[in-house]
Amino acid sequence: MNRLGITLVELLVTLAVIAVLISLLLPAVQQVRESARRMECANNLRQIGLATHNYLAATQRIPPSFCVARWQLGNAWYGNSWSAQARILPYLEQGSVAQRIDLDVDWHLQVSSSTTAFQCPVSICPSEPRPEIRRRQGAPYVAPISYLFCSGTWQIFHPITRASGDGAVIVNGSLRDRDFRDGLSMTLLASEGRTYQPYLRNVGWVTSAPPDRIDAFTGLTGQFKTTGHTVWPDGRAHHTCFTTAFNPNQKIPYIENNTLYDIDFTSQQEGKSAVLPTVSAVTARSHHAGIVNAARMDGSVFSLSDEVDRSVYRALGTRHSAD
Q: Sorting pLDDT into bands at 50, 70 and 90, what band is 54?
């Protein structure tokens, strides 16, 4: 007698085969999607690099990361500058936003949904799982950012000597093409960071050279926060810059309240002390496996491996080390 249906065993076998096929196809689909996100991320950096070059063409200067002026507030230095990311807005087709910003007035005094909480279309990596805007008292406060400018290897700013970092985008910077003696193609301009990054700041601990050990900050005490790279208008290193002290995506262990975190480190907030220098290990991080995307000063964009030789990576972070 001819059967018009299938047996339960045949149904189960068919479902099992389908499940196996799905399990084989799903990673491939996810890989294709991540590849597309990486390409979009690289394109974001390409636009940021182009905008920086257009800023340079218009002003004959690379934008500063942060500006520190000496206002006589007791013995303190005070910084009132917006980030370099804010300065290139007109060259990212965001002129209307730029017109609402007064770069000579501290961003804290210009908080609004249309300024500090504005999120530029090319400011967030498509692989970033936490793009959400920070809120204060229920209202939009500040927006996070994925793309950071390179301030060098370690030093950020010294309030006594007024020395800044050895990178491309620096405190009080007014660098020109001629200042990049290593060559534009051999100097990092920008890379990636993760939003809501844990970090330690204002510890008073400083060394002249970047540490080689990833546990260098163990036991230090200061201000611990989990909001790194969430304030795009703030030009301080822990929000909108990175350094090449440690390799991309290097985990830097630190224990806070019996919980292990992967942190960034800034010895002292720029503009908050008249005597304490700022050194920083703000690591380039991404949500792409094994790499970060990065832009060079010549505008080219490339994938930078987590396994890059540390000496080579630190050399890429400098503009004038003849390396």
A: very high
Per residue, the 3-state secondary structure of 91-104, as one string, reads HHCCHHHHHCCCCC
The pLDDT-based confidence of 117 (bands split at 50, 70, 90) is very high
SS3 221: coil
Task: Name residue 294's beta-bridge partners.
Answer: 191, 302
Most confident region among 25-29, 71-75, 259-263 by mean pLDDT: 259-263
Q: Show the domain range for 171.
A: 39-316
Q: Cα(291)–Cα(285) distance, rounded to whole angstroms?
A: 8
DSSP 208-276: SS--S-TTTTTT--SEEEEEET--TTB-SHHHHEEESSS-TT---EEEETTEEEE-EEESS-TTS-SS-
Residue 289 exposed, middle or buried by CB count within 10 Å (0-12, 13-18, 19+): exposed
Residue tagged 């068919």 (tokens): 14
Evaluate if residue 75 carries a pLDDT over 70: no
The percent of the chain in helix, strand and coil, each rounded to the nearest 5, is: 25, 25, 50
Distance CA(42)–CA(55), nearest Å, equals 20
Q: What's the rounded Cα separation, in Å, for the pair 113 and 143?
A: 9
CB atoms within 10 A of CB 186: 17
- The verdict on residue 188 lying in a domain is yes
What letter would DSSP give residue 107? G
Q: What is the pLDDT of residue 239?
A: 98
- What's residue 73's pLDDT? 39
Residue 164 is assigned to a structural domain of this protein: yes
Count of the separate structural domains present in the chain: 1
Q: Are 151 and 241 in contact (CB under 8 A)?
A: yes
- The backbone torsions φ and ψ at residue 200, rounded to the nearest 5 degrees and listed phi first, read -120, 135
Residue 225 has pLDDT above 60, yes or no: yes
Residue at 44 is within a domain: yes
Q: Residue 23 burial (CB < 10 Å; 0-12/13-18/19+)?
A: exposed
